[in-house]
Amino acid sequence: MKNSALPSDSFHRALEACIPVQQLEADLVAARNALHESDARFNTLADALPHMVWSAMPDGDHDYFNERWYEFTGVARGTTDSEGWNAVLHPGDRERALNAWHQCLQTGEPYQVEYRLRHRSGEYRWALARAMPMRNSEGEIVRWIGTCTDIHEAKQQAEQLEILSRELSHRIKNIFAVIGSLISLSARHASEHKGYAQQIKQRIAALGRAHEFVRPHSEESRQEGVSATLHALIGQILSPYPARDAGRIEISGEDVPVDDRSATPLALLVHELATNATKYGALGEDGGTVSIRSELQGEDLLLEWLEEDGPAVAGEPQRSGFGTVLSELSIRDQLGGELERDWHESGLRVRIRVPRANLQRQMG
Question: What residue stretches are annotated with the PAC domain (predicted)?
Answer without folding.
Answer: 111-163
